[in-house]
Write a structure and sequence with these properties.
Layout: E1 2-6, H1 17-30, E2 34-39, E3 59-63, E4 66-70, H2 81-94, H3 96-101, E5 109-114, H4 120-130, E6 133-138, H5 142-148, H6 155-169, E7 174-177, H7 180-188, E8 196-198, H8 215-220, E9 228-233, H9 243-251, E10 258-263, H10 269-275, E11 282-285, H11 290-299, E12 302-305, H12 319-325, E13 329-333, H13 339-344, E14 349-351, H14 356-367, H15 370-387, H16 390-405
Parallel strand pairs: 1-2, 1-5, 2-4, 5-6, 6-7, 7-8, 9-10, 9-12, 10-11, 12-13, 13-14
Antiparallel strand pairs: 3-4
Length: 447
């Protein structure tokens, strides 16, 4: 099958949408499909074009067997609402020649990745012209998020943007997204349930797994052996609400047994560093290479996942998959009955969003209770094994792609020795032809 993936972010970005898109493309390529990608040069989360890439010239390369076309991109040094819109529009326009070039290849499926939704009209038109099936995969509901988070404030613009979004979503053959609540939101926008498909983000559980204490990384960061590490790793952007962590670090500055480690980059990093500038209990490090990611995640005694309350169910933080897989305790900030709350509450600690006091109390309680940290970490690891394994999720994706093209789906078995995998949404051997549906089996639903 020929599959064209059209989206802003791609490898070698180490986090966020680019990481998952690249892993998806490479997995499909390894399964014998022909995969091509039209994307931008890497820039996220630093908001700076990666070394060796150009913001103004297109290029073509092959990465792990996948042919990748890169289009020019304008990247603002300090993004805000208007600058972000221009940033996204620059790629939507500059990528059209690279997209048009793929018409001679005639793909079977065109998959547009959102963000950015600005690519979706071209992807949809291209699919209709070439006779391909059109697939939209939504990582973030960016239109809702832009207005709910105050990045864009004009009421008339909001109405127009939401109307255009609804019209676009209903025209794709498949609309996939990463959580049950986001599926519900897509249905509220008029997408038929028969067109919806749940494709959660995943984690390589063979690469991320529980380790013993990382003495090397502790030494590099000058963290005492007796101190407990509270780790935030990922994008430092507007949706994360990480300023709450600065407040917690400041309040706990007198505690010599707690050290905060911030790993990553993003639009709010400078502000976060300025807030923590004089705090001896804070460490800042850049995103770590893949060969050190497991060591980094195991540095944590407690992972923290802040989230602004007004971002509930507009996004599902992808960093949660690695947190669970590492087998370390997790504290998340989420409102009741949101997807993040439902996923974490039975295998971690959930506190109210944007409440410094609640976060401090949760951190202090877990630091004082190693047994509870171990119990929660083990529960998170089991959940990752059963529900988030890369093997299981991408097998469902390939099955759906084959069904979309009209091929007979026989439900290839995925060999695993652990009998619990039967509850993870894996494909049943010799199940006969069927359509992969948005409806989840009872055992596949989030507990």
């Amino acid at each position: 099958m020929k599959i064209l993936i059209y989206g802003l972010n791609y490898a070698p970005e180490l986090t966020g949408v680019g990481k998952y898109t690249a892993e998806m493309a490479e997995s499909l390529q390894s399964q014998g499909h022909e995969v091509r990608v039209v994307c931008a040069p890497p820039y996220y989360p630093e908001w700076k074009i990666g070394q060796g890439f150009s913001a103004w010239r297109g290029s073509c390369e092959t990465i792990n067997g996948v042919r990748v076309w890169r289009a020019p991109l304008w990247v603002p040094a300090r993004p805000n609402g208007l600058k972000r819109l221009v940033h996204l529009a620059s790629f939507a326009l500059s990528s059209l020649p690279a997209l048009a070039l793929q018409a001679f290849w005639r793909p079977d499926v065109v998959m547009s990745i959102a963000p950015s939704l600005l690519n979706a009209p071209a992807a949809l038109a291209f699919a209709r012209i070439t006779g391909a099936r059109a697939w939209l995969h939504i990582q973030d509901f960016e239109v809702d998020a832009a207005f709910d988070l105050g990045l864009l404030k004009n009421a008339r613009a909001a109405r127009v943007a939401l109307a255009v979004e609804r019209a676009l979503l209903r025209r794709f053959d498949v609309v996939s997204t990463i959580s049950g609540k986001m599926i519900e939101r897509a249905m509220s926008k008029g997408v038929a349930s028969s067109s919806l498909f749940r494709l959660p983000n995943w984690v390589d559980i063979s690469a991320i797994y529980p380790l013993g204490p990382s003495a090397r990384l502790r030494d590099e960061l000058d963290i005492p052996a007796t101190a407990k590490v509270v780790l935030y790793s990922g994008n430092m952007g507007a949706k994360q609400g990480i300023e709450i962590l600065a407040g917690a670090a400041c309040a706990l500055a007198e505690r010599q047994d707690i050290v905060f480690v911030f790993c990553g980059n993003g639009a709010t990093k400078v502000d976060l560093q300025s807030r923590c500038d004089k705090l001896v209990n804070c460490r800042f490090i850049p995103l770590q290479p893949l060969d050190r990611l497991n060591e980094l995640l195991n540095l944590a005694d407690v992972h923290v996942l802040p989230q602004r309350g007004d971002a509930a169910d507009l996004v599902m933080p992808s960093k949660l998959t690695g947190m669970f897989a590492s087998g370390r305790a997790v504290i998340a900030m989420a409102r009741p009955d949101t997807e993040l709350f439902n996923v974490v509450v039975s295998r971690g600690v959930v506190v109210a969003p944007e409440s410094v006091e609640a976060l401090i109390a949760a951190i202090e309680a877990l630091v004082a209770d190693p047994e509870q940290r171990a119990v929660l970490g083990a529960a998170g690891r089991v959940f990752a094994e059963l529900n988030l394994s890369q093997e299981a999720v991408l097998a469902r994706l390939e099955e759906k792609l084959r069904w979309l093209k009209g091929e007979r789906v026989t439900g290839r078995a995925i060999e695993r020795k652990d009998p619990r995998f039967a509850r993870a949404g894996g494909v049943v051997a010799n199940a006969g032809p069927r359509e992969p549906s948005v409806k989840l089996a009872e055992t596949e639903k989030i507990e």
